[in-house]
Amino acid sequence: MPERDKNKQDGPDIRSNLIKVNVGGDTLFVDSNQYRLKRRKAKYIDTKQRHPKNPKPQEWISEKYSQHKIADYKPFNFVDGEGVRCSLYVSGCLFDCPGCYNLAAQNFNYGMPYTQELEDKIIADIAQPYVQGLTLLGGEPFLNTWVCLKLINRMRKEFGHDKDIWSWSGYTWDELQLETDDKKEMLSKIDILVDGRFLDPLKDLTLQFRGSSNQRIIDVQKSFAAGHVVIWDKLVR
Ligand code: SF4
């Protein structure tokens, strides 16, 4: 009869349920189910209890933060506004909304540099007759005004107002009225602003083009003419 392995214990091998975690440089083995449950709970509490940041007027200066980087470019999509659109996702955002849909793009260094080559491609894509316009989102377009204004100005030069420009922003309409000149210039040159932070308690996935019910789809030019916020007239919900 073979000699019994003294190190082998009877019963289930509980090590199969353990995972290695690093705590302050020490390696610990913890129960994987409990660990994942705690992490999920912590993330849930974080999302429910934390709030987005509220900057003072002109506190965040675009050129101080922007690295002129792009998180993504998506030509010919149907989801970022009305009609077929070309969407530019700029990198960097400071609002830090819990539940943010694009965490990676909060980093100003994420992605690739905005180049002349990319701009030429975007303009060529937008020139297609079936494309309605450009969408700027991120990240925070109003903290990347150098990139956005360069593209907006080129678009107006090439297409006038035949193509429209939508932009998302964590800033509200009212906050932008008190902001720096570059942000105000950018606002004055776009057609539609989807404004405000993403607020997880107000999350509603049935809304058109918005994640939470505090956000508004604003007709920018009509709002300037009226002297108050005018909501996009094609809003369904
Ligand atoms: S404003 Fe938008 S990109 Fe910025 S943190 Fe909030 S959800 Fe994310």
UniProtKB/TrEMBL annotation:
GO terms for molecular function: 4 iron, 4 sulfur cluster binding; [formate-C-acetyltransferase]-activating enzyme activity; metal ion binding; ribonucleoside-diphosphate reductase activity, thioredoxin disulfide as acceptor. Its cofactor is [4Fe-4S] cluster. Its EC number is 1.97.1.4. It comes from Lactobacillus iners DSM 13335. This is Anaerobic ribonucleoside-triphosphate reductase activating protein. SUPFAM superfamilies: Radical SAM enzymes. InterPro entries: Aldolase_TIM, NrdG, Organic_radical-activating, rSAM, rSAM_sf. Keywords: 4Fe-4S, Iron, Iron-sulfur, Metal-binding, Oxidoreductase, S-adenosyl-L-methionine. It comes from the Bacteria.
